Structures are given as C-alpha cells and as structure tokens.
Amino acid sequence: MREYFKNIWAAVFTVLVGMKVTFKHLFVPAVTIQYPDVKPKLPERERNRLYVNMDDCIGCDQCARACPLGIINIETVKALPTEDLKTSQGRKKALWVTNFTIDFAKCCYCQLCVFPCPTECIYMTDVYEFSEYERENLIYNFSTLTPEEIEQKKTNLSLFEAEKAKEKAAKSAAAPAPAKPVPPAAPTETKKEN
Fold first, then answer.
1. Cα distance between residue 107 and residue 135, in whole Å
2. Fewer CB near the terminus (10 Å): N or C of the chain?
3. Where are the beta strands (DSSP E) in 110-191?
4. CATH architecture, domain defined by 50-148
C-alpha cells in the first residue's frame, strides 16, 4: 500500500514540476506580436534589403568590385558630349547605367558594397520582407531605362564613334605627309697623294 501512494505522489510531483513554467506564464502579459499587422521593432543599424538610387549612380562599378559574392552586375554605355547628365548633388555623369542588378537570393547583407560608393546612391533599407516563390524573382533590376532607350543609347554612341573615326581619318588624309628624313651621305675616303 505504501508503494501505491508513493507512485501517486511521484506522478503528482512530476506534473507540478512540468506545469511550473506554465503556471508562471499564466499571469504574465503575452509577448507574441500579431505579425504581419504588427511589425517587430528593429535595431538601429539593421542590415536588410539594398536600394539603389539610379539618379545618383554614376556607373563607377565600385560596389560590384567590393561585393565578396559578385552578385552585383553593372553595365554602362558612354554618354555623348551633348548630353548633360548630372546627379542630384550636381556631379557630372559620364555614363548611362543600362543594367544594374543585384541577386538577393545570394546576398549575405554584409554592407560592403555601401561604403565605397562615391555618390552614396546604394544603401540598406529597413525592408526585410521580400520572399518569393521563384528564385529568379529575387534578382532585382534597378535600371530605370527601358530596353528601347538602352538600344537607342547604344546606337547613338556607335554612330558618334563612327563619325569621330571618319573625321580623324579625314584629318590624317588631309595633313601633309611628313618629309622623309634624308639619310646622311656615306663618308668617302680620299687618298692623299704623296
């Protein structure tokens, strides 16, 4: 009989020890937030999705070279001298950025691409929700030019370069050929008569 009550006491004691945490939290306010209606408070220096302000991007490729994973792809086309391109700070731009992609599926959010940017056009945002069903959708293209505008810029540049080449060829054909230097006469030996 004694063993019987000992087993009952062990069972009750075990249940009370197990329920200790439950009883403790029974009278404490809940810490669960109603996500996504309520967003968690993030630290001040959090590192989340990158954003590129294409108005300020000069196409210098510094961020792509700083990226340890090589996930930033930048393609540029040289701007014509007649085009007046400027950043929002008034800095002159010499290139059209035709392609600026970042593959967020591979990004490690190290922020190393942010610091070398001379115009501070690439920076981390507080957006941390960007899940996708397809991996290809995580390749973000920040370029603001349409495919037609990109082709137009490339065509304009090739026409400009062809025109410059023609002008250069015409100048070199019109310029008089430099006179060929006359080789010095070979020294002749004269015999002295004795």
1. 13
2. C
3. 122-124, 139-141
4. 2-Layer Sandwich (3.30)
Question: With b meaning 16 or more CB within 10 Å and e meaning fewer, what string describes 155-182?
Answer: ebeeeeeeeeeeeeeeeeeeeeeeeeee
| Residue 63 in tokens | 């961020």
Phi, psi of 156 (to 5 degrees): -60, -40
Q: Tell me the C-alpha distance between 47 and 185, whole Å.
A: 79
In the chain, what are the domain boundaries?
A: 50-148
Q: pLDDT 10s digit of each residue in the chain, 194 long? A: 889 989 999 999 999 988 888 888 888 887 788 888 888 888 888 888 999 999 999 999 999 999 999 999 999 999 888 888 888 888 888 899 999 999 999 999 999 999 999 999 999 998 888 889 999 999 999 999 999 999 998 998 888 888 888 888 888 777 665 666 666 666 666 555 54
- The answer to whether 57 and 119 are in contact (CB under 8 A) is yes
Residue 141: both structure tokens together: 């293209």
Distance of alpha carbon 135 from alpha carbon 142, whole angstroms: 17
Backbone phi and psi for residue 143, each to the nearest 5 degrees, phi listed first: -65, 135
